[in-house]
Amino acid sequence: MITILLFTIGCSAPKKEVPQKKVEDVEPAPRVPIASVNSSIPKYKFSFSSLELGMPISELDQRVFKHYGEFYTKDFSVYQLDQIDYLAEAHYISNIDLIFIDSLLVQIQAFLTVDKSNDLINQFGRAKLLINDHHNKTLLETERAITKTSKGYSINEKLDQFRLKWVRQDADIEYEVNKKLNTDSTSVNMVRFSSMGNPNGFKYKLTFQTTDFQYQMALIEWESTR
User: Which superkingdom is the protein from (predicted)?
Assistant: First the structure.
């Protein structure tokens, strides 16, 4: 059967060749990459809430923070937020400063782009309200500082410069607000908030520190003068 098949194919009349149209070489189209915005968004996210007072410096995520410098003595180190794209709360936190003394985290400062007064009051409870300027002191002579609403406690929106303080067993918490324009702000406050990249001019700073932070700072300053 194989022989017959080969023979049949060999004896068949040759087919007339059909002239083929010459195809010109075409350069392949350049590959269009996926939108760069997708590739630039890091999959890794660091949460602000993962920072804990007392944590050793060896546990600090070096992908997110950079060593800013050492001051007073070699035991006083400052780290600063370096990769804000990694920060899960980047939509309302613009910068974070960390202070380590003897390689332990003793202070956390976060600079916010939105006011979190009401959230903090409802989260931490009763706070001490500190007001130093004449405008806000006069305002409180006729209006309440904090009112209770259906959503919880709310601070008077007309207050534009104040501090809220909470004293806990394990930490001191302070939230500082300065919505004033520079014309009515003290030079101290202007310097204090000058590093914040806030286009709306609203200034908010949240601080967590160990209960003995002031004592440790005094000790560091004393050691630096010896």
Answer: Bacteria
Query: Is residue 200, in this structure, part of any structural domain at all?
Result: yes
Backbone φ and ψ of 156, nearest 5°: -60, 120
Tell me if 106 is assigned to some domain.
yes
**CB neighbourhood size of 147 (10 A):** 10
pTM attached to this predicted model: 0.72
User: What's the pLDDT tens digit per position in 40-79?
Assistant: 555 678 899 999 999 999 999 888 898 988 887 788 999 9
Residue closest to 156 by CA, chosen among 181, 131, 182, 190: 131
Range of the domain at 129: 36-224
1, part of any domain: no
Scan for tokens 């910068």, then name that residue. Answer: 95
Residue 62, Cα to own-chain centre: how many angstroms?
14
What total of structural domains would you count in the chain? 1
